[in-house]
Specification:
By secondary structure, this protein is an all-alpha fold. It has helices at about 15-20, 25-45, 50-80, 85-105, 115-140, 145-170, 180-205, 220-230, 230-260, 270-290, 295-310, 320-355, 360-390, 400-425, 435-450; strands at about 395, 400.
Length: about 450
């Protein structure tokens, strides 16, 4: 396959290019739900492996996953093959993702903990080798302040659609005579084995490798010094982590909240679908608002709106499904601000480093944001479960004390609101706007031209 020519400086990609770029996000999103939600239950309940041992194996797999992100970021920036440093990593990792997903989702008879550990680790490392260069590819496709919003909007819209498909699949399969966790994971494995290579092939054929504007190679120690000195990066990654923790708490506790606080377990699926459909519907508004104000102010307004809608959730009780559905609508509409705008701001923050060092290190920066996301999700579990147990909420042991349900409401919606206001405080006066970004681009292009 021949590589398309490098994108022209200053030319924002067309919609068809962005469609081709965003498409792999759909099968990658389909992979996320079964790996994090269904696989633990499958290996403990269907394969009858000890729950504590499965938990230890998956913890080790996720630690390997987190450690691989920065390593992939450094290598993806430094290695410059002819096919492109972003496209090569992306293309080479896809077969390993497919094989790893198949082995984890469709284990052979007699598969045990070693099988899960080996193939889960391979899948996680391959996943990082796909996602980090893929995100860097998108960050470099557009050099303009507003153009980067469109790139991330296309990618995240496909991500939400993939999540919706993953949510709907377990509910729809019994109608086709395919009940049970084994059938669900088999369908997911087939979808990934077919859909991911096809989507990747389309992207590789239609989307150009961005021009590498590096004019120097920064030594390791000096490079990390510049990273530490990048004030917008420090500010954004702090807000990104705090907001990720705020989002991780309700994501972790959603099923518990619907089942035990609202006493409506059958409503969980429709409510999630409603939330993500509203997420897609809200994206155009946040792109418009970012053009009228700035990315960081639009993101902050989105977080304030989510807080206003979420603040009443701790006070809901059994049967309040309609009220909670309205909360899902309003918080879903803000989802576009939370997933599109921070990803676009990341690309602007990378410009600060490129202008200072002369080396474009997008993959390194994006790998650190990926690591922050994973740490935030892990932190959400580490905060929520011990506090719930201490307050008297432990469904597995049959403990559903009133104090535990109060704690569930506070952790699901109260603490996330407090955390989001911390992220808002960090980002409201963020120092990187469109004018500053244009000045950084001028510096980078002038150096590259010389």
């Amino acid at each position: 396959m021949s590589a398309p020519p490098a994108s022209r400086v200053g030319a924002d990609p067309r919609a068809r290019t962005l469609l081709a770029y965003g498409l792999p996000a759909l099968p990658l999103a389909i992979l996320t739900l079964p790996f994090y939600v269904l696989v633990p239950a499958f290996y403990t309940q269907v394969l009858a492996l000890p729950i504590a041992a499965v938990g230890q194996v998956l913890l080790a797999v996720r630690l390997i996953d987190a450690a691989s992100d920065p390593l992939v970021g450094v290598l993806a920036d430094r290695w410059r093959p002819a096919f492109g440093r972003r496209r090569t990593w992306f293309a080479a990792s896809i077969p390993f993702v497919v094989v790893g997903a198949w082995q984890v989702f469709v284990p052979a008879p007699g598969a045990g903990l070693l099988h899960l550990a080996v193939w889960g680790s391979l899948l996680s490392v391959a996943w990082s080798a796909t996602q980090v260069p893929y995100a860097a590819w998108g960050a470099e496709l557009s050099r303009s302040y507003a153009g980067r919003n469109r790139v991330t909007a296309f990618r995240e819209a496909f991500t939400v659609v993939g999540t919706l498909l993953a949510l709907a699949t377990p509910a729809l399969l019994p109608a086709f005579g395919l009940p049970g966790e084994r059938a669900v994971l088999m369908v997911f494995a087939v979808a990934i084995a077919v859909g991911l290579p096809l989507a990747a092939l389309l992207s590789l054929s239609a989307v150009p490798e961005p021009k590498d504007r590096s004019t120097a190679r920064v030594p390791w120690r000096e490079g990390f010094g510049h990273l530490a000195a990048n004030a917008p990066f420090r500010r954004l990654i702090a807000a990104f982590f705090v907001n990720g923790l705020a989002n991780g708490l309700p994501a972790t506790l959603f099923l518990f909240f619907v089942q035990h606080k609202l006493a409506s377990p059958d409503a969980a699926g429709p409510l999630l679908v409603l939330y993500f459909v509203c997420g897609v519907a809200g994206v155009p508004f946040w792109l418009w608002l970012a053009r009228r104000t700035s990315k960081h102010r639009a993101w902050c307004i989105g977080m304030v709106t989510a807080c206003a809608a979420f603040a009443s959730a701790p006070f809901l009780g059994p049967g309040d499904v309609t009220a909670f559905a309205l909360i899902c609508v309003f918080t879903g509409l803000t989802l576009g601000a939370d997933v599109v705008l921070p990803a676009s701001i990341q690309a602007d923050v990378i410009d600060v480093d490129t202008a200072a060092t002369g080396e474009e290190r997008s993959a390194l920066y994006l790998s650190l944001w990926a690591l922050a996301t994973k740490l935030a999700l892990a932190g959400a579990v580490g905060i929520a479960f011990p506090l719930l147990g201490a307050a008297g909420f432990d469904p597995a042991a049959g403990r559903l004390e009133a104090s535990g349900l109060v704690m569930l409401g506070l952790l699901y919606a109260g603490l996330p609101v407090v955390l989001k206001f911390g992220a808002i405080a960090a980002m409201w006066n963020f120092p990187l706007d469109e004018q500053t970004q244009r000045a950084l681009q001028a510096t980078i292009e002038t150096r590259a031209a010389r």
